[in-house]
Amino acid sequence: MIKIKDLKFQYSGTNFYALNNINIEIPKGKYIAILGHNGSGKSTLSKILVGLYKPTEGTVELDGILISKENLKKIRKKIGIVFQNPDNQFIGASVEDDIAFGLENKRLSRKEMKKKVIFYAKKVNMENHLNKEPQNLSGGQKQRVAIASTLALDPPIIIFDEVTSMLDPKGKEEVLNIIKEIQYNREKTLISITHNMNEAIMADILMVFSNGKLVASGDPQSIFANKKIVKLAKIDAPFIYKVSEALKNKGINPTYDKNKLIGDICK
Ligand SMILES: Nc1ncnc2c1ncn2[C@@H]1O[C@H](COP(=O)(O)OP(=O)(O)OP(=O)(O)O)[C@@H](O)[C@H]1O
Ligand SMILES: [Mg+2]
Fold first, then answer.
1. What is the pLDDT of residues 113-128, one digit of tens each?
2. 197 pairs with which residues across the strands?
3. Is residue 244 assigned to a domain?
């Protein structure tokens, strides 16, 4: 679904590559978590994936379409993004308008459109705020509307760039449940850039960035077992992983089925 080949990216006015020789292939329907210290290049990658920045070298394809100026319209149909800061992500005058915005090209009747808007507003628990102006919402509420607007566009690939970092614990949990639901249904290829280790361990594939390079990619458990990577990326293994390792040291071999865990939460 996503094919990144020999990608390099340098911001103008800098003398280093923010992304240096990245090669990644992501299959359809997978849930990818990306970890990495501040400045490691995660957001730069997400902006390249949505066509906001042009690679300095190398190529990126989404579903067989090369990301280029000419293909931008096609690319925008393939991928949706939600940024860390929900400000400046709004187009509509009300929450309802904002969620509806992406649906306007879909030739739906007014009734169908309204039904869809309510459906996505409910998904993010914002159905009681449809008439409010987005500017007057709290940070967490804004973020949830931004997520609903992106989901309403129904792109096959979604990127969440640290969407939970500005949310309170309840907001974080709600967004995490949306992520789990997307993953459980296997409808979309989901890339979630996160500093939340409890989220990272749920992913199908965990990718770790450090200083513009992809330093690890694979099953989250085996990555957290690699002390060198954990140190290099300035990350800390999640609590559930540490508990299971401690039990193993005591001769108990605990197992937790990631997919079952996700399934239970989505029921
Ligand atoms: N507009 C810009 N102009 C110049 N350099 C930039 C620009 N944006 C980012 N950078 C630099 O590029 C590198 C990668 O930044 P990026 O925002 O991709 O990091 P990140 O991994 O998303 O970090 P964080 O976890 O803090 O969000 C950093 O060294 C950063 O200072
Ligand atoms: Mg970032």
1. 999 999 999 988 899 9
2. none
3. yes
Confidence tier at 264 by pLDDT (50, 70, 90): very low
Average pLDDT, the chain: 87
Distance CA 123, CA 145 (A): 10
Number of domains in the chain: 1
Q: Which residues does ligand 1 sit against, CB inside 6 Å? A: 11, 14, 18, 36, 38-44
Q: Is 3 a member of any domain?
A: no
Highest mean pLDDT: which range of 205-219, 220-234, 248-262: 205-219
- How many other β-carbons are positioned within 10 Å of the β-carbon of residue 146? 25
The parent domain of residue 90 ranges over 31-43+77-266
Confirm whether 25 is domain-assigned: no
pTM: 0.88
Burial of 51 (0-12, 13-18, 19+ CB in 10 A): buried
Mutate to test the pocket of ligand 1, among 38, 164, 166, 232 (most ligand atoms within 8 A of CB): 38
